[in-house]
Design brief:
The structure holds 2 protein chains of 2 kinds.
Chain A (H helix, E strand, L loop, with lengths): L4 E3 L2 E4 L5 E6 L6 E7 L6 E7 L2 E4 L8 E4 L6 E5 L8 E8 L7 E2 L3 E5 L1
Parallel strand pairs in A: 2-11
Antiparallel strand pairs in A: 1-3, 3-8, 4-5, 4-9, 5-6, 7-8, 9-10, 9-11
Chain B lengths: L3 E3 L3 E5 L4 E7 L3 E9 L6 E7 L4 E4 L2 E6 L4 E6 L8 E9 L6 E3 L3 E6 L1
Parallel strand pairs in B: 2-11
Antiparallel strand pairs in B: 1-3, 3-8, 4-5, 4-9, 6-7, 7-8, 9-10, 9-11
The chains are: A mainly beta, B mainly beta.
Chain lengths: 113, 112
């Protein structure tokens, strides 16, 4: 069975540009997470969904970041007007319910110059 | 500030040796998870230990949890070069919105 799939694997932007990341979770997983992982740090939760509903987006910089999961399957994370401080790896993960094993994708490494 | 923190940035051992990574945390938890992240990959869960458990094993891995001192350890026996990775502990708080809080990780290098 395929794991969590993310695309693209790499992205390089100039400040002010927009970018979208796409995630396909493990089939049947109702919970989907987006994490930001700056270099040499642990992942930090941005937002998570249960089916199509946003459960917690309190860590998502709402002025420039948005995330959707319209049919409760795939998800898109978008950054409008990227800043150098957004340079990080963006990880998508999924699980069946909460407090169970969370499966991560390989991530998208974003560099903003 | 980090709510979960591994105690060392980096460790190096030779193949076959045993190694322990320690973690401390600052909040009441329902569970603690240990993850391994190899270069270019996402984290992979190794062990989930719940707050009412004191020890959990998975092959060569052994995790302990001490809720009184708010600390955990992950021991790896008979290390292999492929164990080279960053090891994270991640906590699940017992109150508030569910989320995994990761520490900053310990880089383990296993040398031939």
């Amino acid at each position: 069975e395929a794991g969590v799939t993310q695309s693209p694997r790499y992205a390089v932007l100039q400040e002010g540009q927009a970018v979208s990341f796409w995630c396909d979770p493990i089939s049947g997983h109702d919970t989907l997470y987006w994490y930001q992982q700056p270099r040499d740090q642990g992942p930090q939760l941005l937002v998570y969904f249960r089916d199509e509903a946003v459960i917690d987006n309190s860590q998502l910089p709402s002025d420039r970041f948005s995330a959707v999961r319209p049919k409760g399957t795939n998800s898109t994370l978008k950054i409008q007007s990227a800043k150098q401080g957004d340079t990080a790896t963006y990880l998508c993960a999924s699980s069946l319910g909460l407090n169970t094993e969370v499966f991560f994708g390989k991530g998208t490494r974003l560099t903003v110059v | 500030s980090q709510l979960a923190e591994e105690n060392l940035w980096a460790l190096s051992v030779h193949e076959g040796e045993s190694v322990t990574v320690n973690c401390s945390y600052k909040t009441s938890i329902t569970a603690l998870q240990w993850y391994r992240q190899k270069s270019g990959e996402g984290p992979a869960q190794l062990i989930l230990i719940r707050s009412n458990e004191r020890e959990k094993r998975n092959g060569r891995l052994r995790a302990t949890l001490d809720t009184s001192s708010q600390s955990s350890s992950l021991s790896i026996t008979a290390t292999r070069c492929e164990d080279t990775a960053v090891y994270f502990c991640a906590t699940v708080a017992s109150s508030g919105s569910w989320q995994l809080i990761f520490g900053s990780g310990t880089q383990l290098t296993v040398m031939p």
